[in-house]
Design a protein that fits this description.
The chain is α+β, with helices and mostly antiparallel strands. Helices cover 26% and strands 26% of the residues.
C-alpha cells in the first residue's frame, strides 16, 4: 500500500512477519534534509547513514530509501527514521526556535490599520462581537453577499460541513449578518435596546479552482439600532438612523486611510427597498449599507429599525494609501458658502462633490454635506441637497468679489453637468 507523507513523500508499507526483513522503505530526498526539516539539527548524510546502519536499518545505494529490520516494528515512516538519528545526535542539541508560520498567526502588515479601525469604532460607542463561523442552512440566499465572493460556476456555492459542532449549523458563513443579528436579538431579549455592534471576520464560499479550496474573505459588518446615549446619562438623546451607520462606516474607513468612499442607490434583497446604498471605493463596489428589510426584521421579531452595513475589508486594505502629510494651519481665514441645489432625486451628494473637485480650483478647499429636503413644495421626483463650500488661500486673505466669481463658476458647471441649480 502506498501512503502519502508530508511534503509530498511516500513510503511502502507491508505487514511485518517474524524473522523476515521487510521492505517498508521510507522515501526522502536525503535523510539529512529530513532531519534538518523536522528537528533543525544539521547532521551530515554520511553520519545519518552510519547511525541507521548501526541500528540495523539498511539504506539503498542512493541513500534515498531505508529498510527496517524485522525486530523493529516501530519503524514505518519518515519521522521514525528522523527520531532515531536525532536520538543519537542528541536531543539537547535541538535549539529553541519558533515554528515556521505560513500566513496564520503571523503579524500581518494590515494589523495596525485594523487596530485603528477597531479603536475608532470603540470610540464611537461600538462593541465588538465575535460570532460563530458556521450558520444554519435556512440563511441560504437570504442575505446579499459582498461582491465577487460567490462563484457562479459551481453548483453549490456554499461550504457544507460534514460534522457540525452545533445541531443544524452545517454552512460555513458567506455573511456575518446572521450571527450579528442573532447577537442583536439576544441583547434585545435582555432589554438592551440601544445597540452598536461590529464584527471583523472571515466569510467563505465555494470556488471552482484546481485545488478546490474555498474562497475566504475578511469583511467588516456593522449593526445599529435604538437610540444615542450620552456618557453618564440613562435617557437616549435621539433615535439612531441610517446616517449614524453611514457616519460610523465612513469614520472607520477614514481611520484606515480611505476617505473617498461613495454611496449610491442600489437594490439589495435583504435590505429595505428605497433605503439601500452600495458602497464603492475607487470605482469598485465593496459592500452595502441601509435599513434591514421588513420581512427579515419580522423574522427576528425586531420592533425597531435595524441598520446594517457589510463591506469587503480585505479589498479595502489592499488599496494603497497615501501617507498622511502634515502642514501648519493657514493664517488666513476661510470663507464658506451654503447653497441648496434643486435637482432630480437620482443626483447624489457624491456626484456633486465629484463634479466640484474635478474642476480643481485651488481656492475651493472642501465640499461638505449639510442637509437634504424632500416633500412639500417640490415635485415627486425632486429633492434639495444643501452643501457647504469652503474657500481659502494660504497666501492672502480672500476678497468677496473673487469668491463670488468662483462660486458662480462652480454652480454654473454643476447646472451644466448634473442639471441642478440653486434653490431660492
Amino acid at each position: 500500500m502506498i501512503c502519502e507523507l508530508a511534503g509530498g513523500k511516500a513510503y511502502d508499507f507491508v505487514d511485518i512477519y517474524p524473522n523476515r526483513f521487510v521492505a517498508n522503505a521510507v522515501t526522502s530526498a536525503h535523510i539529512s534534509a529530513s532531519v534538518k526539516r523536522l528537528t533543525g539539527l544539521s547532521v551530515e548524510t554520511g553520519e545519518c547513514v552510519r547511525i541507521l546502519n548501526a541500528l540495523g536499518i539498511s539504506g539503498s545505494d542512493d541513500n534515498k530509501s531505508f529498510t527496517s529490520p524485522s525486530w523493529r516494528h516501530d519503524i514505518a515512516i519518515e519521522e521514525d527514521l528522523v527520531e532515531e538519528v536525532a536520538r543519537h545526535a542528541g536531543y539537547e542539541n535541538i535549539a529553541n526556535e519558533l515554528p515556521p508560520a505560513y500566513g496564520a498567526g503571523e503579524y500581518q502588515r494590515s494589523e495596525p490599520r485594523k487596530k485603528r479601525l477597531r479603536e475608532t469604532l470603540a470610540d464611537m460607542g461600538f462593541d465588538e462581537a465575535i460570532t460563530y463561523s458556521f450558520i444554519d442552512t435556512r440563511h441560504d440566499g437570504v442575505f446579499e453577499n459582498i461582491p465577487e465572493l460567490l462563484d457562479e460556476k459551481v453548483e453549490n456555492m456554499y461550504i457544507t460541513l460534514q460534522d457540525s459542532v452545533i445541531d443544524g449549523a452545517l454552512r460555513m458563513r458567506p455573511s456575518i449578518l446572521p450571527g450579528l443579528l442573532d447577537a442583536v436579538r439576544l441583547n434585545l431579549n435582555f432589554q438592551r435596546r440601544d445597540l452598536k455592534l461590529f464584527e471583523i471576520g472571515k466569510v467563505f464560499a465555494a470556488h471552482a479552482g484546481e485545488d478546490n479550496l474555498p474562497n475566504e474573505c475578511e469583511i467588516l459588518t456593522l449593526a445599529v439600532t435604538g437610540g444615542e446615549i450620552s456618557e453618564g446619562k440613562a435617557v437616549t438623546v435621539r433615535e439612531l438612523d441610517l446616517y449614524d451607520a453611514k457616519g460610523a462606516l465612513e469614520a472607520a474607513l477614514e481611520a484606515i486611510g480611505v476617505s473617498n468612499a461613495d454611496f449610491t442607490s442600489a437594490e439589495v434583497k435583504h435590505l429595505r427597498k428605497g433605503q439601500t446604498a452600495a458602497v464603492s471605493v475607487d470605482g469598485s463596489r465593496v459592500g452595502f449599507i441601509r435599513r434591514l428589510s421588513d420581512d427579515i426584521a419580522a423574522g427576528y421579531k425586531f420592533k425597531h429599525p435595524v441598520y446594517v452595513a457589510e463591506v469587503d475589508l480585505q479589498a479595502i486594505l489592499d488599496i494603497a494609501t497615501i501617507p498622511i502629510a502634515y502642514r501648519p494651519l493657514s493664517k488666513y481665514p476661510a470663507i464658506t458658502r451654503d447653497v441648496s441645489l434643486l435637482g432630480d432625486r437620482n443626483v447624489s451628494f457624491s456626484a456633486i462633490r465629484e463634479a466640484v473637485t474635478e474642476q480643481n480650483f485651488e481656492l475651493c478647499r472642501n465640499v461638505n454635506f449639510v442637509d437634504v429636503y424632500e416633500g412639500k413644495g417640490l415635485q415627486e421626483n425632486e429633492r434639495s441637497i444643501t452643501i457647504r463650500l469652503e474657500y481659502r488661500s494660504d497666501e492672502r486673505t480672500l476678497i468677496e468679489d473673487e469668491v463670488e466669481a468662483l462660486h458662480k463658476q462652480i454652480l454654473t458647471y454643476l447646472e451644466q453637468k448634473l442639471a441642478i441649480k440653486p434653490r431660492f
